[in-house]
Amino acid sequence: MFEVLFVLKGTGSGNNYAYLVTDESSKDAVIIDPANPPEADPSGSHGDHAGGNNKILSQFKHLQLPVIAGKDCESVTKTPKHEEMFKIGHNISVKALHTPCHTQDSICWLMEDGEDKVVFTGDTLFIGGTGAEMHKALNKVLSALPNETKVYPGHEYTKQNVKFLTTILQTEPVKKLQAFAENNQQTQGKFTIGDEKQYNVFMRVDDPMVQKATGKTEPVDVMSKLREMKNNM
Question: What is the DSSP string of 159-191?
Answer without folding.
Answer: HHHHHHHHHH---HHHHHHHHHHHH-S--TTSS
